[in-house]
From TrEMBL:
Belongs to the glycosyl hydrolase 13 family. The keyword Transit peptide applies. InterPro entries: GH (IPR017853), GH13_cat_dom (IPR006047), Glyco_hydro_13_N (IPR004193), Glyco_hydro_b (IPR013780), Glycogen_debranch_GlgX (IPR011837), Ig-like_fold (IPR013783), Ig_E-set (IPR014756). It holds the Pfam family CBM_48. GO terms for biological process: glycogen catabolic process. Keywords: Glycosidase, Hydrolase, Transit peptide. Residues 172-582 form the Glycosyl hydrolase family 13 catalytic domain. The gene is glgX. The keyword Hydrolase applies. One of its GO terms (molecular function) is amylo-alpha-1,6-glucosidase activity. This is Glycogen debranching enzyme GlgX.
Length: 711
């Protein structure tokens, strides 16, 4: 609204109508939620379905006590929303929170306590825990302090890269672990900014997408305790316990102590995009850091417990996450918050995609039962702001809901393919009865994703959760004693094999076999249809000494030891070469499933399976070897025609002779990779592959893989 005085228009809503303790304010705008700058002031908006009153609490940055507490007048309430515009605040120094009053009636789902100052669920930045592992002030009346973030970052011409998902090579990374080890030799180790120093390395390896483990604000001191072996403090290192979904973690920023974590993260994303690398965030919308009824009240519980959490009829917390509580994602209020959050990261941080931790929870109703048409998953799939973002589900939860292959996809969702991981591990180990299943996995799992295409399958053999690739072939059992849980934590179904000795050894033959098995795994990963994901450090033989659940270690169990790059250069070279091979051959990156027919008249089907005899596949249960051939003339990237590719996989403990399919049109077989050769001879230069000596057969050594190119 405006009035006219002479030639000047004056907006009435720029000026206060109320005053309290010297602070001037007026009724605010209900949307957007959170704190946003407006002319002359800041608009605050927060909702609660059951609170009886709300008070805005204002602090100077770092102050022990607030400088003002302003109750929202009744007339400032719109439905369940409290909104107020406060004038003449120093927004650069401002910290704010809320007190919510209402019933404390856990049996009815309410846990209000007006004595607790609560963080804003929509805060764009949090203060109070600005430096990694700095000792908290346990007497602070308000430990997680909501702050404003400002839209003054110069993105220049940056935008999300929008690569076709089939062209991605994903690298799963923990921000702190990636550069914290002294061998990283970077400035500001363990921070967002340090990632910039390693972009050259990522490009050299060949990855074009990094997937960051949680970077939202979380409390690394949560559930901290001494290591029973060393006495070192065990902490929440991985960060799967969110305090606020909109705020990047200050402790991951070199500038966090100055409150500049937002700009630091944006700078890194812009630099990654300049170098052709997408950024996917691992997001944790299944639970929060508030835990169960014994946990701390930080934000959601004190604002609207019954809305934000799934509760039993008695008022206790459903625990489908395994961490004490479960976010009530299909309540419309919570669903809108999740949407607002992801839209914010996509629009304001230029994020390229999201991986959803324990995503099966997102499809549960408010009583915990699985929904056939989950509104949140549908909303994310069809949201216009997220239209170009990759959406990836970890399609299971801790409550037993396992949806790999059946996750509600709406034509948009991909999945971490846990069945791919398990099948490949068991096949590499030499288990029987895996050939038929492996044939499905290397095709992009059409048995799971027939209607969705191979790009629904995010293929991985190792991830943060479980053994590294090196440990997969070095340990038969998990060794988690250092976690302080009597080795009871972590999975027991590792499908690992120590190659004859548990742990480190100087035995040359065992170490050669372990390295061969790592290269076998990398070979399978990068010749499989679908989207490959590599765990940070697997390309250089990273070990966690048999610990398959290092969630609590801020030490060398998690930190990437960059000296391994020199020690195991042959592993890096092999991984780099396999990524180059994948990128060079579009037939390895199909967006549609194979038809097992020759629909282009090449004389060969798009894919064919072979045994030790060409064109005669052995599907029997005791078979541990097979081969497949891809016809490059069926490659689907425009008019590009590719070479023939033949891959022989022998997981038997003796060498086998494979009869080669005959080639037409003067083509001949050339060898690109052979994992049974000495390290220096295992892989060829792309485009300069040597001719196979005998064009009618090859010998695949025990537990080895051979990749041929027909050209």
């Amino acid at each position: 609204m405006a009035t006219t005085s002479g030639t000047n228009d004056i907006r009435i809503d720029y000026y206060p109508t109320h005053e309290h303790e010297g602070i001037k304010f007026r009724r605010g705008h209900a949307l957007p939620f959170g704190a946003t700058t407006v002319p002359n002031g800041v608009n605050f908006s927060i909702s609660s379905s059951a609170a009886t009153s709300c008070t805005l609490v204002l602090f100077d940055r770092g102050a022990a006590q607030p400088f003002a507490e302003i109750p929202f007048p009744d007339e400032f309430r719109v439905g369940d929303v409290y909104c107020m515009t406060v004038f003449d605040l120093d927004v650069e120094r401002l910290e704010y929170g809320y007190r919510m009053d209402g019933p404390f009636a856990p049996e009815l789902g309410h846990r209000f306590n007006k004595n607790i100052i609560l963080s804003d669920p929509y805060a764009r930045s949090l203060g109070g825990r600005d430096t990694w592992l700095a000792q908290p002030n346990w007497d602070d009346i308000y430990p997680y302090r909501s702050r404003l973030a400002f839209e003054d970052f110069d993105w220049e011409n940056d935008h999300p890269l929008e690569y076709p998902i089939e062209d991605l090579v994903i690298y799963e990374m923990h921000v702190r672990a990636f550069t914290q080890h002294p061998t990283a030799k970077v400035k500001n180790s363990g921070t967002f900014s340090a990632i910039k120093s390693k972009i050259k390395y990522l490009k050299e390896l060949g990855v074009n997408c990094i997937e960051l483990m949680p970077i939202y604000e979380y409390d690394e001191w949560e559930n901290s305790k001494p290591n029973p072996v060393t006495g070192e403090m065990l902490v929440n290192f991985w960060g799967y316990s969110t305090v606020n979904f909109f705020s990047p973690k200050a402790g991951y920023a070199a500038t966090g102590k100055f409150g500049m974590q937002v700009d630091e993260l944006k700078t890194v994303i812009k630099e990654l995009h300049k170098n052709g690398i997408e950024v996917i965030l691992d997001v944790v919308f299944n639970h929060t850091a508030e835990g169960d009824h014994r946990g701390h009240t930080i934000s959601f519980r004190g604002i609207d417990n019954k809305t934000y959490y799934m509760l039993t009829p008695e008022g206790y917390y459903f625990n489908f996450s395994g961490t004490g509580n479960t976010l009530n994602c299909n309540n419309p209020v919570v669903r809108n918050m999740v949407l607002d959050c992801l839209r914010y990261w996509a629009a304001d941080y230029h994020i390229d995609g999201f991986r959803f931790d324990l995503a099966a929870i997102l499809g549960r109703a408010q009583d915990g039962s699985p929904l056939s048409n989950p509104p949140l998953l549908e909303s994310l799939a069809y949201d216009p702001i997220l239209a170009k973002c990759k959406l990836i589900a970890e399609a299971w939860d801790a409550g037993g809901l396992y949806q790999v292959g059946t996750f509600p996809a709406y034509g948009r969702w991909a999945e971490w393919n846990g069945k791919y991981r398990d099948s490949v591990r068991k096949f590499l180990k030499g288990d029987e009865g895996l050939v038929g299943e492996m044939a499905q996995r290397i095709q992009g799992s059409p048995d799971l994703y027939y209607y969705r295409g191979p790009t629904a399958s995010i293929n991985f053999i190792a991830c943060h959760d479980g053994f590294t690739l090196y440990d997969l072939f070095s340990y038969n059992e998990k060794h988690n004693e250092a976690n302080g849980e009597n080795n009871n934590d972590g999975g027991n179904d590792n499908h690992s094999w120590n190659c004859g000795w548990e742990g480190e050894t100087d035995d040359i033959e065992i170490n050669f076999l372990r390295h061969k098995q790592i290269k076998n795994a990398l070979s399978i990963l990068f010749v499989s249809q679908g989207v490959p994901m590599l765990l940070m450090g697997d390309e250089m033989g990273r070990t966690k000494l048999g610990n398959n659940n290092t969630y609590c270690h801020d030490n060398e169990l998690n930190w990437l030891d960059w000296s391994l790059l020199k020690k195991n250069k042959h592993l890096f070279d092999f991984a780099q070469s396999m990524i180059k091979f994948r990128k060079a051959h579009p037939v390895l990156r199909s967006s549609t499933h194979f038809t097992h027919s020759d629909y282009v008249g090449s004389g060969y089907p798009d894919i064919s399976f072979h045994g030790t005899r060409a064109w005669q596949m052995d599907w029997s249960a005791n078979n541990r070897s097979f081969a497949f051939m891809l016809c490059g003339e069926h490659a689907k990237q425009g008019a590009i025609k590719d070479d023939m590719i033949y891959v022989a996989m022998n997981m038997y403990w003796e060498a086998l002779s494979f009869e080669l399919p005959a080639l037409s049109r003067d083509r001949k077989w050339h060898v690109y990779a052979n994992t049974d050769m000495p390290a220096a001879e295992q892989v060829s230069t792309l485009g300069k592959e040597p001719l196979v000596q005998h064009q009618d057969h090859i010998i695949a050594g025990a537990r080895s893989i051979i990749i041929l190119v027909g050209k």
